[in-house]
Design brief:
With 217 residues, the protein is an alpha/beta fold. The protein is built from 9 helices and 7 strands, in the order ββαββαβαβαβααααα. The strands form 2 sheets. It has a 5-stranded parallel sheet, with helices on both faces. Keywords: DNA-binding.
Length: 217
Amino acid sequence: MFLRDNGSLRNEQHRFTEEAETQGSHPPGPVWIDCSYPMVALGLTRALEGRTTVYTGEAPGAVPTSVIICAEDIEGLQASIEDAKRINPNASVLVFSMRVDLPLARTAFRAGARGFIHAGMSPDQVARAVEVAARGEIVAPRQLVEHLLANEDPVDLGMLSVRQREVLEFVVEGLSNAQIAQRLYLSESTIKQHLRAAYKVLGVRNRNEAARVVRGR
């Protein structure tokens, strides 16, 4: 992973798309652009023209080696990445956003994405990002990496509701959903709903990751 559980950077080799070399590069395999915006999909397709085979729209019959997912927000991003991985577990997934969005990037990398690209990048930078990610390396624009290095602020738990914070405090104590429901006089299904909502706010996938975030506040 590109990020530690507490949101800081691991000492892992990564490549900046701005610095990726074009000489000696190898074109990636088929690329599937999973994007509901025709103009964005067209722009990404043009950036890859002449370099590889590009598919847009529904999942292609051919198995893509790279997948570009257009994301507007965190909600649903993990499911989209998981869907891409089901088509090809070894596919390198890159998430495209209209801007450098730190919470979105963190969620993308935690969910298994290999790269984060955005609308401020040039076509050549996007193409190089796909090539580098296809080789199994992490790809991020320089300004995003610099921002991550300079801003390791804890997650703002104030974005959680009072009930969500109560539930998470019990999770940190190691209580099960049934035990939390008993403590708060709520149904177990209601506890699950509060947890799912809290996961989205924190950008985590499960109760263990949520507990680590709360402990590290």
